[in-house]
Amino acid sequence: MGLEVATAAAAAADGSEVATALHPGVRVWVPDALDAWIAAEVLAITGDTVKVAIGSGAGKTEKEVRASDCNLQEKGHAEEDMVKLNYLHEPGVLHNLGARYSLDEIYTYTGSILIAVNPFQRLPHLYDHHMMDQYQGMALGELSPHVFAIAEAAFRTMVKERYSQAILVSGESGAGKTETTKQIMHYLAHMGGSSGASKRAGGDTSARPVEQQVLESNPLLEAFGNAKTVRNDNSSRFGKFVEIQFDANNRISGAAIRTYLLERSRIVTINDPERNFHIFYQLCDGASDDERKSLRLGSPKDYYYTNQSTCVNLTGFDNAVEYGATRHAMDIVGISKAEQDNVMRVVAGILHLGNVTFSASKEDDDGCELADDAARTALGDAAAVMMIDGERLEKALKTRTIATRDGLITKPLDVAAATNSRDSLAKTLYSRLFDWLVQKINASIGQDPDSKSFIGVLDIYGFESFKTNSFEQFCINLANEKLQQHFNQHVFKMEQEEYEREAIDWSYIEFVDNQDVLDLIEKKPIGIISLLDEACMFPATTHEQFANKLYTALKDNARFTKPKRSMTAFTLTHYAGEVTYESDYFIEKNKDFVVAEHQALLGASELELLVDIFEAKPEPAEAEGKGG
């Protein structure tokens, strides 16, 4: 069971204080190319140069380092709460976490924040009902660090102060955020077991408890929202806020799931050895013979959207078995057999759509045509399974209609533009389908319009930096910058302000305040987002023009740089490090509109599901129920 609740920022000790404390025999941490930090003993000091001994016996070595690179070691045992460490620096934090991990203690506090190190194995004894009973009614810090202690603190604060609470679950891919969210929900269910069926309109009073329904929806969300990444075979590629609602008696009375930042780019582009979303592989390997025939299915290796990577199967997972589990989860949340079949038609249609390729037109220099017979077959298959007109689909992919003063003009698209149109349609189809599934889950669970308070659990992926970073990574990293600022406010600024108010004798702790990065991105009128929104207001703006505007407006900002070998990329120095973003598709992705031809085509489908998800949408404020 892998877990991570929060990541602590460690403040390095002042270099002059370290230099004063250094003398022969003192134990320190020094930088190491292989292990980041390694233990050493000071042998001699000459000015700013320190000679240290590393290792012992025959393997003992000596090296010289700068005094500022030496970090003093703790003399005592590993601490359950790292606030008690004498030296709160990076090597000290890492060593403390490592020492506790070696004792099978995966949890460690930093004040009211819990840090978890992924054990990469199931530890059922840590999460049984006996363990839950132990933490019931206990204040944070009275027992050993545990995720249940965080959930208990949130529940008790909600009950005592009658204020809604939120728990942030953050960490990189593979840290175990989704599993942590499940454990928090298990504890909340243990403490506030349902007052009865959820209060949906005309709801079934014999329904299962709300918390059980939320947990049972996980396989469905994971099938459509999770994928294999380099670090994690089951990585959530979307953010999720689960709102557990409570009545006046502090019993669970309803719930809502809200999703954010689905990684749309993965639908059309994957890197080896990663995979697309699980459902594509599940459908190809798990569909019945009748389904395969009606959906014209092949294997994942036959489709461009899944064969860009050599990885098709996952160790320990059977795609066919997982497909059965996904179908069962759809049954549980009340999706009918007919609706399930329609969902799979859309999934299969997206796979076929990815095989529609184009070549330059022989008759029109500005246009394109279907590349070959295979492309024509793929287009026919996509149209057939999604029950749309094949000729209209081809026209929608190859042309664009432009409104002018004199009327509508149909403009042919070149190969690159038609391919982009195809991918845009695939991403729109999948993201709308994902939103529809979330709506069905929420309708099944039921929100309580009369709830008195709620506990929200935010499970969102952490800071990202890949070989190629686009608008999706930009949005994810902005979210993490905001969360990091909240962390700074909570851990450092608020604590230190409290010390000042109470006239406590203390030493100021230096920490990285990332407000300047947020200003660079968000500040009006010359933040990156403002400049991007401005570029989106003018249809003729190209990504080169947008990039040049960034270079001109932000060239003097220390956090912003222009890579030497690119005319459209830019680099931001985030709190977690530098990330270079390719701005080529920022404008298109920020607009996030549905092409009119695509909307009309899919809205005219004979497939009821497509007509439903492409009808006019209400404003967000109207679409959502009470959010607390």
User: Helix amount, in percent?
Assistant: 40-55%
Structural class, please? Answer: alpha+beta
What order do the strands of the largest sheet run in, or round the barrel if closed? Answer: 4-3-2-1-5
According to DSSP, the number of beta strands is 20
Tell me the strand percentage band: 15-25%
Tally of DSSP helical segments: 23
Major pleated sheet: 5 strands, antiparallel
Radius of gyration: 28 Å
Shape: globular
The low-pLDDT segments are 1-14, 196-206, 618-628
Oligomer: single chain
Overall mean pLDDT: 89
Distance between the termini: 31 Å
Give a structural overview.
- The longest helix has 31 residues, at 415-445.
- It is globular, with a radius of gyration of 28 Å.
- It contains 23 helices and 20 strands.
- Helix 12 runs antiparallel to helix 15.
- A hairpin with a 7-residue loop joins strand 18 and strand 19 (569-574).
- The protein has a five-stranded antiparallel beta sheet, with no helix packed on it. The chain has a four-stranded mixed beta sheet with strand order 8-17-11-12.
- It is of the alpha+beta class.
- Mean pLDDT is 89; it is low at 1-14, 196-206 and 618-628.
- The protein is 41% helix and 17% strand.
